[in-house]
Amino acid sequence: MPSFDVVSKTDLMEIDNVINQVQRSIKQRFDLAGTKCDVQRTDNTLTITADDNMKLTQLHALIKENCVKRKIDSKALDFAEPQTASGDSLRQSLTIKQGIDKEVAKKHYKVC
């Protein structure tokens, strides 16, 4: 029986470009300029820091918008629940999905 591997990797260089564009937008937008909003990447995790929930949702929109511009599927980012950080700010981590989950791959294999 033939075997094949399905690889679905997210381009981390494009993710870095998305982060750079979001950081530029934070500095330029009047509603986000001068705030403590920030986006950082470590390995396969993005960390978003925002002053309040409204700014956090605006950062979500900026990230998704720039992902579309860079041809990255927004489903490649797994949003975790926001957590409170120091000084009434919010912190949220996003996991960058690399590859296909084992359960999903099994489901697709059974269909074929």
Radius of gyration, taken over Cα atoms and rounded to an integer in Å:
17 Å
Q: Helix proportion of residues, in percent? A: 25-40%
Mean pLDDT: 85
CATH T-level fold name: Alpha-Beta Plaits
* Helix/strand/pairing category: alpha+beta
In total, the number of domains comes to 1
Largest sheet: 5 strands, antiparallel
Order of helices and strands: HEEHEEEH
CATH architecture: 2-Layer Sandwich
Overall form: elongated
Number of strands: 5
CATH superfamily, by name, is: YajQ-like, domain 2
Q: Strand share of the residues?
A: 15-25%
Instruction: Report the uncertain regions.
Output: none
CATH class: Alpha Beta
Total helical elements: 3
Task: Kindly report how far apart the N and C termini lie.
Answer: 13 Å
